[in-house]
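Hey,
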Amino acid sequence: MTTPPSPAQQLISKLEHTKLSFQYGEDAHASVRQLCEEAKQYGMATVCVRPEHVLTAREALGHKTSVVLAAVAGFPERPVSRQDHEECPVIGACYSSTKLQEITTAQGSGAEEFDVVMNVAFLKKDHEIGGEFTLKELQGLRMVADDMPIKLILEVDLLSEDELRFAIAQAVEADIDTIKTSTGYLKEGIGATPERIAFIRKTLDDLGAFHVGIKASGGIRTLEDALAVQAAGATRIGSSACVAIAQAALEMPVNPSAFSDLY
């Protein structure tokens, strides 16, 4: 009889180990290889990297691994403040053709999933005037990605509740697989909270989109953070602190109640 996974293993199997920023002088390829080895060591769900690092990650992971390789598309180059974004939109604001090209290139290098940033400024305008840019872009992304999963990054800190509902509805209509909360690149952003995850889950359920997952990302740094968003409905958890979270989970008592007491 197969032993069921422990609560710690269940949590770790939802982690997406992420490396999207680098210090000056850092060997990016060495850091990505380390990322992949850590994900394999702990049995995490996914590694998430920039398109230019997909080939390095694919070589490091190999082809006989349960760790999925995800690539971002339309991702900002550097953190941005809310004021700067409002003056000159950055979050997801590159050309649709750039996102499509990044997906195509990443596919060819071995990516299996895509975390694509929604154009926040155009979403807001679509919501205001009943436009279709967001839906058309998402449909194009869906077509190019074929049957590979797409996680749509909404940047929830920049959206009102009505805009968030609208964005989720557009994603569902375009057959997006997972709603992701944040890039983590908005300087004042809070990112994923249990309340936001619960709101997204309810919105999806109200639309009948019970199959659509939720990736909590942005501001998740501790085991307590991860457990809280998991309890609220997150099916994936993205963080650059996945090793610390996994280690803390494995150090907890085996009794599942030890986990439930944390949220």
